[in-house]
Every structure is written in structure tokens, then in C-alpha cells.
Amino acid sequence: MKIIECPRDAMQGLTEFVPTATKTAYLNALLRVGFDTLDFGSFVSPKAIPQLRDTAEVLAGLDLSQTRTRLLAIVANLRGAETAVTHPEIEFIGFPLSVSETFQQRNTNKSILEALAELAQMQNLCEKSGKQLVTYLSMGFGNPYGDPWSPEVVGEFTQTLADMGVGIVALSDTVGASTPATIAPLFGQLIPAFPQIEFGAHLHTTPTSWREKVAAAYQAGCRRFDGALGGFGGCPMAADVLTGNMATENLLAYFQEKGEELGLNLEVLAEAQALAGGVFGAVVH
After folding, report:
1. Has the keyword Lyase been applied to this entry (predicted)?
2. Which is it for the CA torsion 45, 139, 131, 251, positive or negative?
């Protein structure tokens, strides 16, 4: 079972800039918790995501000496990937490839065909640099724009990624559109069809629908889940009203019920929750 903690996704939509020192202290606490991976920052245009313009400075302040957690950085183009791979501390490079043409343009200012061409270059770059590319299939459970979507479409995208050699694919519920009726069949079909790929669930949700979504993915065989403490954040490019990230607390509660051994330091988790109040302007319970 892999839990990917995503403070980058939680912070990126905040309008008030969080000081670098505050970010760094929060991320260092999260590192000590022992998550599998920390989605800590992004190398994108400061004009697009001003909140994360200090990712390189934050990275320089992270203490990786006593953690098993690996670092993931998000990029929106090849230039960002070229910057990210120069940092030896970063193991994973994440790129959002959308199943929706409208959202691909809105999120990365390029067409799906252009994004696929650039993604192939990123995969090659990662292979040469000893990194792993994580591809997020944005709008993986449907979209509000009327663009074509079906399990077959998602399967075709996945086949293209498999042909490139991509090893990790996270189905992303960018606007909270997923339901158990869409989640279970997708994972149920894709996981056995592509055994060489590790599939993840990046689910956005409301406070009342999280359990059924997690259960659907878990029961269909998914063992990689993204979350963010407090359920903060979402994609600022997706909608005017943000649908929250999957709350890490809910993921942990569910998997503990299922008897999964997560190996996390819960005392440090409480410390991180306290620090989250300084980052997001509210106390996380």
C-alpha cells in the first residue's frame, strides 16, 4: 500500500503566498511521517502557479537524512522536466495528461497530441536521468466540457503510455466527477490489462463521498492513493469552485480498518496537522 501525500496540490490554489520557511517546515514534518512519496512542489511558470515559485528554495531546505519518503515534482512541459531532473533529490517527475482536449489546453496550453509528443520526450529524459515519470490522466473519470470519455478512451490513452514505457499512471478525478460506478470498472479493467504499470488513484471529493470512492478503487485492486492532509486544495485550472483533495486522514482511517500496515509515525502526523494550520489558515482536525 502506497500513500502519496500531496501538499503541492493542496497549496497551489492558495491566493496568499505561503512563506518559503513555512512551506519548508511543513514539508519536513510530512517527510518524518514516512509516506511513500511526497508530491512537494512543481517546476512550472510562476505566472501559472505563483504559489510554487519557490520550489527550488523549498527543496534546498528539506531534510532527507531520516526519511524513507521519496520526492515527486510536477511539471507542465519539457522545460520544467529538464529543470526537475537536475535535482538529484527528486525521484519522480509528474506530468498531467488530460483525457479531455479542453482541459489539456486549459491546464498546459497545448493539445493532447502536443502533450503526448512532449511526454515521450520526458519519458526519454527520465530514463536517461534515472528518474521515474508519473503520468496523471486528468479528467480520467469524465469531464464537464462534453469532450469524449469512456473506459475505452482511458484504455487507449493507457495503451499509448504503456507503449512509451511509462510505469506509473494515476487516474485523476480532477473535478470530483467520479462515482463507484466509474471507478471500479476502470481499475478493474486496467490493472489486469497492464500488469507492467502501477496504477494510482488521485481522487477529488466532497466530505460525504470519500469513503465510497476509496472503497471502489481499493476493492478493484488499486494500492496507490494520493491524499492531502485536511482535504485542502484542488486544481485551480479545473473550476472556479475547487473540489477538495482526498483527505489523507480519511485514507489512513479506511486502510487501518482494512488491516493494511502503513508504517507511518502517527505522532509526527499530529505535528504536521498542527503545522498545516499555519499553511492553510485553519486548524486541521
Report:
1. yes
2. positive
